[in-house]
UniProtKB/TrEMBL annotation:
Name of this protein: Glycosyltransferase
Keyword check for Glycosyltransferase: yes
Source organism: Pseudomonas soli
Hydrolase listed as a keyword: no
E.C. code: 2.4.-.-
Amino acid sequence: MNVWLVKLEEPVPQDSNYRPYRMGMLESALVARGHRVLRWCSDLNHLTGEARYGHSTSVTYTENQCYEFISSGVTYKSPISIGRVIDNFLVKLKIKNKAKSLVAPDLIVCSMPTPALCKLSAQLSSHFSVPLVLDCRDYWPEIIYSEAKGWKLLAAYMLAFKMRRDLRYACKQAHSFVGITDFFTGHLLKYSGRSAGRFDKVFPLGFSPASSPDSEADTETMRAFWAERGVSLAEHEFIFYFAGRLNSTVYNAIQPVVDALKMLEQALPKALFVFCGSGSHATSIQNTFSDSTNVVFPGEMDSCALGYLRAHSTAALQPVERRIDYQNSYSNKFFEYLSSGLPIFSWLDGISGQKLVSEQCGFIYNDAEALTAQIIRFCGDKGLRVEMSRRAKALFNDEFDAGVVYEGYAKHLEAVYADSKAESYV
């Protein structure tokens, strides 16, 4: 098959410190099965905020991996901004013009969001008479209201009307819906106005441990590196790990952790809580722990440093606000923690929290007292720690390993394509 993957913001293999996201992992699975992949990408690297080439260009990476980098000439810092709206509009127009001059695909996979690109993909699907698969990973347009404030909220309401119209159009044209959970597949079905069919599936985000391996390399160097940042493996018997964006979703759920750490200073003096990362609320989050001595904020760390820290951590934290989309999905960090055999203490009590409890590899806490009691019990029982770690890794290997997830996804796309060919002969 010649498959087009439409998702502007994800990293690509040419990027430094490349770490594949969903489309990258699907791309690898398809190429491994002998298919050709063309990815439509923004020239703007959304992780660094810098242009890759500074203009639109076509790149052949391997015989079966090609990329169309589209430049709008517009940059933006905030994901909710006029700049992004203008960028997306201009990129969409350029994709529309460029796409029709290329060799026709056999199948198109478009990520949702954005609804506008879903609509464009539906139009291209119709133009080429090929099947369209919509892949839903975010609760757009409904969730954009929670991210906007002031005049941006008014703009969000105005944009939402068009987004709903675009998404409805795309869903009525699509041959298959894929969601990262049942909730997101159902979100697309709601817009389509039909019931679920045999090509409507769930494939979780998945995670490739090889992209961020646990590391024992350069042991002495890494020990010294972390000791300089307040993490002493000799002094701290229990290390609780967090790595991710320190944004509003963490800030809004951090208070129970703050209060628990105050209680744990005396009850568990050899425990240390490490929050790696940066973000819009990093300073505010750090300030809430100003009276605590058992927490450190080392900032952004590279994959080697994080891999080493995970390999020496006892458990992980998931302090994420209970927003409807987060309650109905699994984050990349959830998979990363499990892949390292780290039991998880979760504020989320939706599907990720329930999965942890049912598989006996984590806890849900509803307040600081519960979190404190859970951590004290966990640290005081070595047998429990070993068993929960084993269960965490087994759960990951069985359900969330990228090799398992995306091989299944690739086979699904093959089935959709085969069905479309069979229909064309009827």
